[in-house]
Amino acid sequence: MVRMMGSSRAARRATGLVATLAWVALLAPTASASPATSTGPRGQVIADHVEVFAVLDGRLDDVMGNQHRLMLQTDRSSASWPGSNARILSYYCTAGARVTMSWTSSRCISRGTSYLRYDDGDYRVSPTMRTAVVDGTMEAGRARIAFDLTLVAQGSRTSTRDDQGRIRRVWPARAWGRVDDAAIRPDAPGKRNAMIVRVERG
Fold first, then answer.
1. Is a pLDDT exceeding 60 seen at residue 38?
2. How many domains does the chain have?
3. Does one domain contain both 52 and 120?
4. Which residues constitute the signal peptide according to the record (predicted)?
């Protein structure tokens, strides 16, 4: 009877060992594949973004005002609060009165803020990062606002690396064009009102 019990225990141990080895065999391929999937090749583009900070002169469809501050940052991760990265502040100014990005004439009246909804198809960055376009139609409440902007890089590009090893490349740029019937106000020669941004794997 004692010999039979010993044989039974040995059989159970053998069965358990076989099951364990089977699980190890199943898990091994998954464990080895995960790092390659999560990291990706070095230099791979994770995301492209544009930033535009400019004054618009003219009319926007379904938006009150004749002068507007455009603040567009397509990288939502840099927003201080939801919606702050893409908005238009509108003003009605009497003849001769103006708003700038940092100053508002006492003869200009605020007509409200429009928060823009957009998707990745509304802008594109060239492979060289030297140019970009914003040419989609964004929504703001009931308004549909058509963009036709061109960005051209100026000056020197800078690069920084974050804690996760990603590289952020930023190129100052100048933007011009139209938003609906309003045009970007020409700035002083050489003044930059935009940025072209690319995030890559390090």
1. no
2. 2
3. yes
4. 1-33
